[in-house]
Amino acid sequence: MLLISFPAEGGRRVNILVTGGTGFVGGALVEHLIKSGHQVSLLSRRKGKDRRIRWFPLQDGRFPAESLEGVEIVVNLAGENIGGSRWTEAAKRRILDSRVSLTSQLVSACRKRREQCDNMPRLLINASAVGYYGTGEETIFTEEDGPGCGFLADVCRRWEAAAEEASPFGIRVIRLRLGVVLGPDGGMLAKMDRPFRFGLGGVVGSGRQWISWVHRDDVLGVIDQAIEDEAMTGAYNLCSFNPVTMAELCHALAGRLGGRAWATVPAFALRLAFGDMADEMLLSGQRVLPKRLSEAGYRFRHSRLEEALTAIYR
Fold it and tell me: Which residues does the UniProt record annotate as the domain NAD-dependent epimerase/dehydratase (predicted)?
């Protein structure tokens, strides 16, 4: 977790608390802020050595209320890696608890600060995912659609509900439903591109499943806008206007790396290896559009897959 302090427009300093700040997205957010000349402090499970950063301990998964001192904005990205291991019942509990429990503790700490000193964050930017909508090959989902079925949909629904508990006592809450985040050195591509580099890549499953993706640069860009634009509130789909099928992604990746997607990874093999996770994350998808981001005037830096892959594999 991170406590980030940076100068706002006009030179006023704004304190921001970011959870999950050492992950694929959070780490890039920190570097983005440091390179922009901002000051950064971290709330982390272990103390780091970077002297540019002020460190606070996180122990036993408990949210330290003292970390909210002076904080105006919270960006909540924390959560155990959904694709990090096979979905056993224990793993599912960890995935859910690492999001819902910590978010509930965070909101409770904000409420207590309001009761004790009337000094609490004014904005909570909470991560979620397009998995909120469940899966489907035909439906086009926007923010007007409700939650779907399945484990991921349930996690997202409960995670967002925990964050929304901050709204009644005056905190502006933004829920960012992230698509598959693409970028260098991590995320989905880090797991996919190695076979393609050696000419062994293939299409996963039927290839018809939709991938609603977003370049990591645009995740940072939307967070920037959410901080600055006080009119933004509620749920926003954070993905490109141009989702692709798994087959299109695999062929584009193979072409970029100088090969071709000549094989198929069959569904039964994925289910054998990954269990339930294969059906929700690999063999199914959702076609999601960022309607509310468009209405908010956000302009994507990487709107098409080919542009995004070119930026990643320079």
Answer: 16-238
